[in-house]
Amino acid sequence: MVDVIVIGAGFAGVTAARELGVAGRQVLILEGRARAGGRTWRQIQHGHPFELGGAYIHWLQPHVWAELTRYGLGLAPTSEQEVTEVRVWSEGALHRLDVETGYGLLGEAYAALYAADPQPGECFPLPYQQATSPAWAAVAELSLAQQVERLNLPPLQRDLLNAMLTTDMSAPPGEGALLELLRLRAALGTDDFTRLAEATGTFMIEGGTAALLDRMLADSRAELCTEAW
Ligand SMILES: Cc1cc2nc3c(=O)[nH]c(=O)nc-3n(C[C@H](O)[C@H](O)[C@H](O)COP(=O)(O)OP(=O)(O)OC[C@H]3O[C@@H](n4cnc5c(N)ncnc54)[C@H](O)[C@@H]3O)c2cc1C
């Protein structure tokens, strides 16, 4: 006898199933694909693990971080590589900048982005909450690419900023929401783009996203039906 049917076995669906399971409900998860995980997908290829979707976590994502504590999961070792050059494709050519110049341009560009209206603190006076102030409504539909265009930066600096924002968002700036960047900036408490890069691309889960997903699925005691339709 099933009490609740959850559609989709991404992290949202599995979290719902886990909460329901812990509350004593019998859950059936119907997943369209052949696997659980949704936009996270850890694969072993040629003997090496690969995360083909979401992978990085940070304590600025308090709910995800709490799950690590709950299941006693640690962090995967991070490979530290020194940046020796900044390269950017701009106006039909590859530009190679020394680190001081590249980081200087990026620092200015991020500062301009955060100084533009609306500012992070206006939208997120309490960064751990959803946007609560009226300021967010005006930019709710705005992409990062649209906001970057408003800054009228020189082409090289604009393209450098867009490249870095692509790694911050794991998506082209045209698909990244300005609000998400403002939320991250409000939580970070600094304009320093290297701290943002650390927050969005440094820490991985020991055993990968699948290690967490498998534990949550086990706790849910749900029946998982893949290729459901
Ligand atoms: C390339 C990439 C990199 C990313 N990097 C990070 C990162 O480093 N850190 C981070 O925190 N986040 C990252 N993300 C974002 C993160 O992966 C997602 O926010 C998160 O996985 C979304 O989980 P979800 O459960 O909300 O949705 P999804 O993962 O999309 O899950 C939805 C599930 O529902 C299923 N489904 C949908 N419709 C139906 C239906 N009608 N019937 C049955 N099943 C259905 C889908 O097949 C899917 O399995 C990244 C995303 C991508 C794509």
Assigned CATH class of the largest domain: Alpha Beta
Low-confidence stretches: none
Category from helices, strands and their pairing: alpha/beta
Principal-axis shape equals: globular
Q: Give the averaged pLDDT, no decimals.
A: 94
Percent helix range: 40-55%
Question: What composes the largest sheet?
Answer: 3 strands, parallel
Reading the helices and strands in chain order gives: EHEEEEHEEHHHHHHEHE
Using the 3D structure, state the CATH architecture of the largest domain: Alpha-Beta Complex
How would you write the strand order of the largest sheet?
1-2-9
Quantity of strands, as a count: 9
CATH topology of the largest domain: Polyamine Oxidase, Chain A, domain 2
Bound molecules: flavin-adenine dinucleotide
Radius of gyration: 20 Å
Number of helices: 9
Distance between the termini: 20 Å
Taken together, the total number of domains comes to 2
DSSP strand (E) fraction?
5-15%
SSE arrangement:
Elements: E1 4-7, H1 11-22, E2 27-30, E3 42-45, E4 48-51, E5 56-57, H2 62-71, E6 86-90, E7 93-97, H3 99-115, H4 120-123, H5 144-150, H6 155-169, H7 178-188, H8 193-201, E8 203-204, H9 208-220, E9 223-225
Parallel strand pairs: 1-2, 2-9
Antiparallel strand pairs: 3-4, 5-8, 6-7
Helix pairs in contact: 1-9, 3-6, 5-6, 6-8
Flavin-adenine dinucleotide binds near residues 10, 40 and 170.
